[in-house]
Amino acid sequence: MAKTFAVSGQHYLFDVQAFAHTILALGGDDYEYALRDRSTAQVIEDVAAGVSELGVIVQTSTTAAQINAVLEERGLEFVSCAESDPMIALPASHPLSNAKELTLEELADWPYLCFEQEAGAPAFFAEEALSEVPRSKVIKCTDRASLSELASAVNGYTVTSGILVGITDGGSLTTIPLKTDVRLNLGYIVPKGAELGEFATRFVANLTRSLERYAS
Predict the structure, then answer these.
(1) Which residues contact 47 (CB under 8 A, 6 or more apart)?
(2) Per-residue confidence in pLDDT tens, the chain, 216 aa
(3) What domains are defined for the chain?
(4) d(CA 130, CA 86)
(5) The dihedral sign for the CA sequence 142, 65, 58, 128
(6) How far is CA 106 from the centre of its chain?
(7) CA atoms within 13 A on the CB side of 149
(8) First-to-last CA distance in the chain?
(9) What's the number of CA atoms in the CB half-sphere (13 Å) around residue 22?
(10) How do strand 76-84 and strand 112-115 relate by DSSP bridges?
(11) What is the reported pTM?
(12) Residue 107 phi/psi, 5° resolution?
């Protein structure tokens, strides 16, 4: 019988390495695994419907209460693995790339890139911290590769965790600390009270290890 295991996650990189380490350790000649890049609503739906055993998401200190209320309604819970400060990701060739720290005000004239959520999705489902700040130049993407390439092409920026855990996010991007009091809470969602299976337990251990090493 084929081994099966599926994880859904927002468009971050830190779950990719954890997933790779997990399935390499499991080995075998007969398996079907899935790692799904999803919007926030899709991650929640996948886990609630049992399509994925768990979902990797990021909460912020300003959105956690609202997201947790939605999870409660769906019979899910958030488990924290690590906290981190938000970072600005922009091209290495950007005029601000050598800054030691940046504010959103300093970035106001540059294009802002973010991941598109479904029509009608609440604002707190945004994958980027401080997404509620008004911006005049906004480019929305649905996949990580397009966002990275566009950021380089238009000298734009996005707000991210800055945790790359050994996998490059488009080699031309660099990260700079964002001056803000907002914190990121990185973790995963599961059905409330659920016991993780062998594959999920290994994945969570790998994910936590990576996040604890690289989170600030």
Answers:
(1) 8, 53, 54, 55, 76, 189, 190, 191
(2) 788 999 999 998 889 989 999 999 988 889 999 999 999 999 999 999 999 999 999 999 999 999 999 999 999 999 999 999 999 999 999 999 999 999 999 999 999 999 999 999 999 999 999 999 999 999 999 998 899 899 999 999 999 987 755 444 445 789 999 999 999 999 999 999 999 999 999 999 999 998 887 765
(3) 3-83+183-214 (3.40.190.10), 85-177 (3.40.190.10)
(4) 9
(5) positive
(6) 24
(7) 6
(8) 42
(9) 29
(10) unpaired
(11) 0.91
(12) -100, 5
Measure the CA–CA gap between 72 and 50, rounded to whole angstroms.
Answer: 16
Distance CA 101, CA 88 (A): 9
Phi-psi region of 64 (alpha: psi -120 to 50; beta: other; left: phi over 0): alpha
187/83 Cα distance (integer angstroms) = 9
Two tokens, residue 171: 């080699």
Q: Which residues contact 205 (CB under 8 A, 6 or more apart)?
A: none
